[in-house]
Design goal:
This protein is 84% helix and 0% strand. It is mainly alpha-helical. The longest helix has 26 residues.
Length: 55
């Protein structure tokens, strides 16, 4: 799996943002974790999907 520099910066920024939100609003934990996992999954799949559809 090949990651570009911009994609590598997304994960730490999202993790930091999610951590701050969890500290402020602990009841949002499950939603924040779900959104984080979906976003990281899509970011990981996007290069694979883009390369397979481009030919």
């Amino acid at each position: 799996m090949i990651f570009t520099g911009s994609m590598l910066m997304v994960a730490p920024v999202m993790a930091l943002f999610a951590g701050v939100l969890i500290l402020i609003f602990p009841r949002l934990l499950s939603y924040i974790v779900a959104a984080y996992l979906i976003a990281i999954g899509l970011a990981g799949l996007f290069p694979v999907l883009a390369s397979s559809t481009m030919g």
